[in-house]
Structures are given as C-alpha cells and as structure tokens.
Amino acid sequence: MDLKELPSNVGDDNISEEANSLISSLPLCTDFQGKKLCNYQGCWYKYNTLQGVLNFQRGFEPQDTDIILASFPKSGTTWLKALTSALMERSKNHSFDHHPLLSDSPHGIIPFLELSVYQESSSPNLAKFSSLPRLFSTHMPLHAMHETLKGSPCKIVYLCRNVKDTLISWWFFRSAVNKIEPNRSLVESTFEAFCNGTIYYGPIWEHVLSYWRRSLENPKQVLFMRYEEMKAEPRDQVKRLAEFLGCPFTTEEEDNGLVDEILDFCSLRNLSSLEVNKTKIFNKVDRSIFFRKGEVGDWKNYLNPEMENKLDMIIQEKLQGSGLKF
Ligand code: A3P
Questions:
Q1: Active site residues
Q2: Do the Cβ atoms of 162 and 227 come closer than 8 Å?
Q3: Atom of ligand 1 nearest to the CA of 159
C-alpha cells in the first residue's frame, strides 16, 4: 500500500468542495487496486464514501426505534439483512409468497446509510421509511456514528466474521467487481492491506473492537453476533436476533417450524437462486456476487502457514486485553 500525498482536487464529481478540502488535510493512500483512500477519524474510506459519512454525521436524526445493522464488508451483511427483514416482516407476511425479498435485494430493502442513503443526497427524504422501526445498515465503525447517535437508544446489531475468511471473501468480491480472475498476486496484496490496516473501512480490528466494547458496556443497545456462530447454531442465533430486535418467536411460531422456515428462506442457496438476486445490479455491481460459498474456514484453501501466522500474531496483539478472540 502506497502511502502518499494526493492532490486536493480528487476529481470526483460527487464530492463537495468542503469534503475535498477536508480530504486534502487527511492521511491518504492508494490501495492495492489503485483506489484512493483517506483516513478520517481512524478509518480508511474511499472519497465518495467519506462524503456519505460526512452527510450522515451532519444530517442523520436518529429515532428511538431505529435499528442499524453494522458490519465490516464481507462479514455476512447480506445474510443479516435478509434475516432481519424476514423476522420483522413475519407479522405482515405469513407466507413467503409475496415477501419483499422476492422483489428486492437485501441491500435494497435495508440500505446502507453512508453508501446509499447519504451518498445519494446530503438531505435524503427518509419519509419512505414510514413503517417503524426504520431499518438501516452501515459499514462505518461505531466511533464514526458516536456523535450522531449520542443519547439515542436505537439498537445496533453488529455481525463479526473471522478476519481470514473476511479477507478471502473480500479478495473474491473485488476480483468479481473488477471482472478479473482472483489471482495469487491479488490475494497477496489483499493480505498485506489487511495486515497494514490500510483497507477500505479498516483497520478491521478497530472496526470490530468499536462494536465489541460497546456491546459489553451496553448489551441492550449493541448485539454482537458472529458469522461462525450463525453457521454453527443458526436456530439459537436467529432466536437471539429476534429477541434483540424486539420480535421474539412465540411458542406457537416455534412449534409451527417458523424458525427453520426463515432460515431456509434466507439461506445462501435460496437467496442466490431468486431471480431478483441473479439478474439485477446493486451500486453498479451484479447482485449475484454477494453470494459465493458462505463457508467457515475457506481461508485455509488460499492462505499459506506463513500468512496465517502473521495475521494471527497481528490479531492477537491488536485484540489483547479486549476479551475478544478469533
Ligand atoms: P464468502 O465469500 O466467504 O462465500 P457481505 O454480505 O458482507 O458482502 O458478505 C458476503 C459473504 O457472505 C460471502 O462469503 C457470501 O457468500 C456470504 N453470504 C451471503 N449470503 C449468505 C447467506 N444467506 N448465508 C450465509 N452466507 C452468506
């Protein structure tokens, strides 16, 4: 990752003069794919993402009932969104025949604050989120939302995933976005970027820790979930999620098999087979690339023991004393 000064005129039409001037005062780098990143409040953003973050920080007015789904990219965000939507919708949609997930992607149903809502406009019309609670998502670390959400009791669900699987998922995703083969050189540069922390929305440990700490301080506000636990014990985890969201399963629902129905409806197999996720575009990328293998430990097929050790040591050092382990 090449840390260097970049000109203040970043040549991006979506960036305001004010954001441009802020960018020129920030640490900058070019990532392994030539994308320019700037470090704002300890997190690396693409320039137009920073614009979304600034718009959000300035304009968002939380409501007490808001729910925000947060994650580092490639941690299973799409799955969490689908499950949340299915859980919240189930009182309206007793069958899945007309479920919103059949006509829109999980990312369309629960939009990203800084990547969709506040990137499209500095003062978006949130009236379309008329039914409560409003559901949003974000890849921002918690400290980026701290001031804006200050004093608000809104709920946050954070989904965390093993760093090595996140890295491999990121490598495949970036390759797919750029329509190139996921080659060795790219996995090595992705690995270096994860290790240095100079990755979009990184460093990943700062990201995870921001939510982990708050979940310990205030478990009623932040639910900390793990992708691996969702895979290993999906029923328990989806019930835990439903309870946190304020819509626990009734005994009758459980007896009628609704927990399994929701899990099946939101499975990678089902979601990726839906026409809406096969044929349409989200944020200029093909929706199908949000679904790949969805396995735990896939990193073992791509990272060598040297890489494994290096990343383990960095993670251990960064998470030391936090109580969080991978
Ligand atoms: P892999 O690349 O390891 O397969 P995000 O949604 O944050 O972009 O994360 C994408 C990762 O979540 C991908 O992981 C993808 O396959 C996996 N994923 C997507 N939908 C899923 C689902 N319904 N169940 C489990 N994993 C899912």
A1: 139
A2: yes
A3: 7
